[in-house]
DNA sequence: GGATGTGAAGCGGTTCACAGCC
DNA sequence: GGCTGTGAACCGCTTCACATCC
């Protein structure tokens, strides 16, 4: 039975767990900081602490890339930087197009983290004629009509969507049709894309709502059990005992 | 032994899984869209599709809040909106302070998603004297010296850190000392906070790097196994079998 | 001795598949 | 008949604990 035997192929390539991939950039950043401080070697304990994870996780993560440490010693910072960079694909340049040059798009265009490590802003595009021609972070804003043109000539493979929500899906369809296979979406909508295209979402409002949930619990909201003894009025919560007692 | 018996208390309150909490805002947004279109009732299948998840997951998520659906029918949109809002703590107002009014802080201050649902910008702060006094998104920028003041008088419980990396930890320490227990961090650093304070991180550069990793695999990078036998050029996508087929 | 690398156990989350109810 | 709600199986990630190697 088990009709999804072939599911394993989903974790493609070398099979680095997605959770590990998501942490590699954090390790890389910590390593760069160590490098700047002139540190040549680092233990899993130290690096883990700098990255905000525990050392077992760090070691397991790194073990997926290969055996780049030395037992009894630690990891050579420079070597590890190179290996992680290579694994993440940062040893080559990636051309990025930013679509939507409102406040957010502008912030992105000026963000140092883009230019610094392997990412090149190959185009800023907007539908607003008033913005077209303006120079932002050293690049001239072009009209959205030229989207396909910019993607093709700039060999753009990553599109950053920073448009209003209502425009995002249309823009997404266009960049995908033009050959882009990775999208970073800042618009508060669920984008639908064909198989093979990766979308990552950054959503400020969602993050805030998650924080609000936890904050509410701390403060005695509907999910909070701390007050279950007494009987304040309001949205009469349905009580469920939790072992926390 | 097992010295982490009390770890269970970490998943506090009613015990809604963290993964579920992270999806509730997405459902909420989809429900609002349905509401605007005048839809009164929705099935798990429809709502799931609008939210970009599968229906089993959606049903299990909602079941953690209670039995708010009707078998054979679906969920009443308005009722579900209320229940999720209440669970997330959006039926009350949350005061937010934004620290750092560069491009990003400005984008955040002007972001509609803040004001719209339960979040009120109670303060914009910056260390740059040139910015202090300026009006942004209808609010006057105040000097960072007044941070504690603003937090106390505005009853701020959520701080958004949009400062340069080097300033973030110091700002974080100050907002925590002033009583803030939820932090949304946009600065590319790992913040350390005392027990009981929640930090969520939004990191553009990390998202891009994750995309680059996958992009590289598609294109035949070091993690790519597809070409190990032969060598066709081009972005010959790595095929992923999906049971739907 | 000391730190890495890794089987094995543990845990949370996802998916299946169907019982339960309208 | 149709759709929700949910136990059970499954899966991947985390953590432990220690064998392994410098």
UniProtKB/TrEMBL annotation, chains A, B:
<feature type="binding site">
    <location>
        <begin position="100"/>
        <end position="105"/>
    </location>
    <ligand>
        <name>NAD(+)</name>
    </ligand>
</feature>
<dbReference type="Pfam" id="PF02629">
    <property type="entry name" value="CoA_binding"/>
</dbReference>
<dbReference type="InterPro" id="IPR022876">
    <property type="entry name" value="Tscrpt_rep_Rex"/>
</dbReference>
<dbReference type="InterPro" id="IPR003781">
    <property type="entry name" value="CoA-bd"/>
</dbReference>
<dbReference type="InterPro" id="IPR036291">
    <property type="entry name" value="NAD(P)-bd_dom_sf"/>
</dbReference>
<keyword id="KW-0678">Repressor</keyword>
<feature type="domain" description="CoA-binding">
    <location>
        <begin position="89"/>
        <end position="190"/>
    </location>
</feature>
<feature type="region of interest" description="Disordered">
    <location>
        <begin position="217"/>
        <end position="245"/>
    </location>
</feature>
<keyword id="KW-0804">Transcription</keyword>
<dbReference type="InterPro" id="IPR036390">
    <property type="entry name" value="WH_DNA-bd_sf"/>
</dbReference>
<dbReference type="InterPro" id="IPR058236">
    <property type="entry name" value="Rex_actinobacterial-type"/>
</dbReference>
<dbReference type="Pfam" id="PF06971">
    <property type="entry name" value="Put_DNA-bind_N"/>
</dbReference>
<dbReference type="InterPro" id="IPR009718">
    <property type="entry name" value="Rex_DNA-bd_C_dom"/>
</dbReference>
<keyword id="KW-0520">NAD</keyword>
<comment type="similarity">
    <text>Belongs to the transcriptional regulatory Rex family.</text>
</comment>
<keyword id="KW-0805">Transcription regulation</keyword>
<comment type="function">
    <text>Modulates transcription in response to changes in cellular NADH/NAD(+) redox state.</text>
</comment>
<comment type="subunit">
    <text>Homodimer.</text>
</comment>
<protein>
    <recommendedName>
        <fullName>Redox-sensing transcriptional repressor Rex</fullName>
    </recommendedName>
</protein>
<dbReference type="InterPro" id="IPR036388">
    <property type="entry name" value="WH-like_DNA-bd_sf"/>
</dbReference>
<feature type="compositionally biased region" description="Basic and acidic residues">
    <location>
        <begin position="217"/>
        <end position="228"/>
    </location>
</feature>
<feature type="DNA-binding region" description="H-T-H motif">
    <location>
        <begin position="26"/>
        <end position="65"/>
    </location>
</feature>
<keyword id="KW-0238">DNA-binding</keyword>
<keyword id="KW-0963">Cytoplasm</keyword>
């Amino acid at each position: 039975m088990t009709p999804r035997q072939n599911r394993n192929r989903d974790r493609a390539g070398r099979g680095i767990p997605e959770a590990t991939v998501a942490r590699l950039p954090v390790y890389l950043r910590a390593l760069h900081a160590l490098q700047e401080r002139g540190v040549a070697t680092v233990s899993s304990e130290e690096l883990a602490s700098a990255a905000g994870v525990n050392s077992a996780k760090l070691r397991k993560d790194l073990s997926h890339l290969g055996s780049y440490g030395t037992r009894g010693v630690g990891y050579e910072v420079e070597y590890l930087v190179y290996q992680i960079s290579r694994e993440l694909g940062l040893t080559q340049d990636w051309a990025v197009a930013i679509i939507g040059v409102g406040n957010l798009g502008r912030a992105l265009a000026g963000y140092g983290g883009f230019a610094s490590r392997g990412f090149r802003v190959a185009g800023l595009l907007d539908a607003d004629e008033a913005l077209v021609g303006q120079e932002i972070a050293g690049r001239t804003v072009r009209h959205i009509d030229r989207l396909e043109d910019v993607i093709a000539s700039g060999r753009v493979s990553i599109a950053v969507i920073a448009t209003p929500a209502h425009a995002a899906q249309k823009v997404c369809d266009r960049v995908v049709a033009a050959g882009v296979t990775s999208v970073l979406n800042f618009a508060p909508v669920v984008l639908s894309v064909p198989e093979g295209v990766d979308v990552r979402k950054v959503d400020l409002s969602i993050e805030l709502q998650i924080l609000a949930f936890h904050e509410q619990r701390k403060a005695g909201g509907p999910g909070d059990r701390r007050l279950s003894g007494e009987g304040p009025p309001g949205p009469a919560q349905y009580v469920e005992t939790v072992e926390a007692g």
